[in-house]
Structure formats: C-alpha cells, structure tokens
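User: Could you go from structure to sequence for me? I need the amino acid at each position, not a summary. Structure tokens:
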C-alpha cells in the first residue's frame, strides 16, 4: 500500500503544478491532507478530506482511488469497489486503480472480472512482485493451486521481504498437509512483519494441527492482543480451547466469532464439534450441514458430519457425505468410507 500512496502523491503534485483552477487546487489540497491522515490511520478524518475534495471537483480520479484504498484498509471491500469503479470510469487507463480493483474483486470472490483487470494491466505490472502475489491469489480462488504456488514463489524471488507471499504460499502448504513447510513460511512472514495477523493466526493453526497446543495459544493470543474482535483469531482460539478441555470458554469465543462472521465454515464446524462432544448430535448436525452448504474447503468437515450421521444410525447418509469428502481428500471421510461403506 505504501507504493500506492507514493504514486498518489506524485500524481497529485503534477495536478497541482499544472492547474490554475481554484477548485481543483483546493481539491488537491484536500487529497494531500487525506493522504496524511490515512498514513496516520486516522481513517474517518481521512475520509472527511476526500469527501471535501470530491465536493470541490468530482472529476479527479485520484480521489476515488484514495477512497478505495481507504475503504480497503477499513475492511470494507464492497465500498472500495464502488469507489474504484468511479476512478476507472473517469480514466479507463488508470492502471493503479484497476490493479487495486482486481485485488478487491478477488477478495469478493469475483474471479472472472478480476482476471479481466489483471490481463489488462499485465504489460504494466507483469514484472512486479505485487502482480505475481495478486495473480497467485486469483489462481487460488480458481483452485489452480500449482499455478498459485508458482506465482507466490516468483513474488518471493522478486521481493524476498514480501510477507504476504510467504503467508499465501504457507496456506497452500498447509492445505497439502506439508506442515513443516507451512510453519517455515508463516515464521518467515512473522519475522518480516511481526504484526501481520494472518501469520499469527496461521502459525496458531499449524501448531494446533500438530497438537502443540502451547505454541498455538502463544500465537493466537498475540493475534487477539492486536485485535480482540478478529473473528478468525476468535475461531482458532476457540478450536484450541475445544481440544484442551475448555469447552465452555471455547463456545463463548466461537459464538462471538460466528456473530462477527456468519459464513465461516470453520466456525460452523467447530461449533458442531462442541455439540458433538456434548453428545447433542442433532444440534451438531445442524451446524455441520450449514458448513457443508457453504462449499468452503474446511478440513475434516465431511468426516465429522458422516460420523454424526453414523451416531444416529443413519449409515446411508453417513456414507453419502463421506463419499463427497473422499473426493475432497478429507482424511476422516476416506478412512471411514473404507471401513464402514460397501
């Protein structure tokens, strides 16, 4: 994001030098003030200045790019997308806005339009680490993991200090159950940026999967110290507590996480596990089935769902869900279908 901000300052300065129109000069001054406040993370004040700039002259594309960056930092991708669309409508060759729009579209799950933007900017950014990072994210969204992995490696080669590329490569390693490789990537990202929540959360989950609960707690507690309402950290910490005999505390964190992020398949699975452990199988199945309906890649979800059906003597339903899980390389589902389904 620092690179974007520098580009904005340069463009703004050029506008200021070349412009004799008072409204435009005032608008540029508001943009500069907004940039300063955004750098200090005074987001509401920054937004105020950008809105004032828009009132002065709503035909400067930089205003809308900056608002898009601001909303991205505030975790509001839908609002960011609306502003970036305005910037590109005003200047169809505004490649920096198109680049950020592609990244935003990926976050929103719109692979088709993101790919169109990435193709259009390839000639301008195709040799940059950031381009490979974002294209890797696009390949990940399209479930083209081998290509995504290659792009993250290329991003790291071009910029060994790009923490996000290590995180994203680590996620692919984690899903392949290459936990040592994933741990290496997340630790490297944490070394580069020790306040990166994704690295902290993912380290927590690597250690949780390898049952190193003490280390898992260490990193997840750091993540929650940074942001006590981070739904991912709350879910992950809840999972650790669930597996260390602290079910009631786990349930509180999981409920809070679900309230903040209702469509997180992992949280739904974990609440299902809470009820499963309490032998409330019908309630467990309610949450398992909600998670399955989201069609997200959630580890061992199909396996546990089938076991829940098996517990209430619905072996046909269990085998049906295990077959789906087997296709998705769910290890519990694969083992169960071989043992119980003919």
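Assistant: Here is the amino acid at each position, in order:
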């Amino acid at each position: 994001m620092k690179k974007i901000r520098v580009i904005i300052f340069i463009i703004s300065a050029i506008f200021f030098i070349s412009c004799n129109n008072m409204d435009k000069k005032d608008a540029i001054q508001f943009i500069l003030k907004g940039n300063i406040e955004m750098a200090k993370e005074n987001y509401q004040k920054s937004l105020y200045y950008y809105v004032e700039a828009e009132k002065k002259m709503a035909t400067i594309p930089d205003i809308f790019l900056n608002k898009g960056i601001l909303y991205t930092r505030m975790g509001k991708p839908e609002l960011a997308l609306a502003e970036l669309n305005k910037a590109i409508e005003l200047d169809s060759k505004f490649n920096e806005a198109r680049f950020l729009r592609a990244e935003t579209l990926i976050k929103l799950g719109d692979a088709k339009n993101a790919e169109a933007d990435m193709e259009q900017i390839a000639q301008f950014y195709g040799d940059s680490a950031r381009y490979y990072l974002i294209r890797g994210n696009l390949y990940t969204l399209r479930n083209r993991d081998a290509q995504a992995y290659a792009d993250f490696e290329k991003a790291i080669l071009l910029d060994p200090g790009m923490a996000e590329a290590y995180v994203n490569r680590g996620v692919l390693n984690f899903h392949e159950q290459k936990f040592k490789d994933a741990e290496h990537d997340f630790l490297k990202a944490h070394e580069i940026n020790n306040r990166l929540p994704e690295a902290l959360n993912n380290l927590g989950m690597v250690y949780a999967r390898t049952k190193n609960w003490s280390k898992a707690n260490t990193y997840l507690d750091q993540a929650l110290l940074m942001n006590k309402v981070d739904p991912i950290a709350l879910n992950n910490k809840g999972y650790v507590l669930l597996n260390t005999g602290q079910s009631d505390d786990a349930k509180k964190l999981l409920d809070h996480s679900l309230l903040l992020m209702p469509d997180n398949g992992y949280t739904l699975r974990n609440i299902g596990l809470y009820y499963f452990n309490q032998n409330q199988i019908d309630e467990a199945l309610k949450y398992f089935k909600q998670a399955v309906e989201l069609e997200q890649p959630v580890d061992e979800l199909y396996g546990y769902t089938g076991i829940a059906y098996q517990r209430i003597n619905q072996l046909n339903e269990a085998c049906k869900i295990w077959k789906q899980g087997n296709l998705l390389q769910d290890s519990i589902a694969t083992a169960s279908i071989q043992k119980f389904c003919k």
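One structural detail worth keeping in mind: The two ends are 55 Å apart (CA to CA).
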